[in-house]
Amino acid sequence: MDEGVGMVAELVPLALCTGFGLGFLTLAARSVMGALRLWLRGLRVMGQVTPRKVADRRPGGLVVFSDHLGRGLVFDPGWRGPLCGLPPVGGTVPVVYAQNRPAAAGLWTLRYLLAPSFGWFLSSTLAFGAGVMVSS
How far apart are CA 51 and CA 88, in angstroms? Predict the structure, then answer.
């Protein structure tokens, strides 16, 4: 009876690591597919980088652009903006969005579109690696 419990105790961490790894891998594939969909069918426009309010201490600026219907929209690239090629305030940057969802816009740079999938792939690799280490 004790052998069965010991074997189950060894398999539980391996199963958890494998499950997390597969989940992260699924999220990475989904993120890549979303970026590919934007790359192929997204609408591209130029946006203007504007400063944030004085009270907002986050780095980078906001991007103001017009959608295909002429409506003015403001896009916040968040923490990924400065890391993924957002120019300084006053510069122009290409923006891409799905035609039916201009509020969910993104920067038209390879780094900005693929950064989330890289993070999910890295998390998946770490989870699978932890599973290998646990099973050894």
Answer: 9
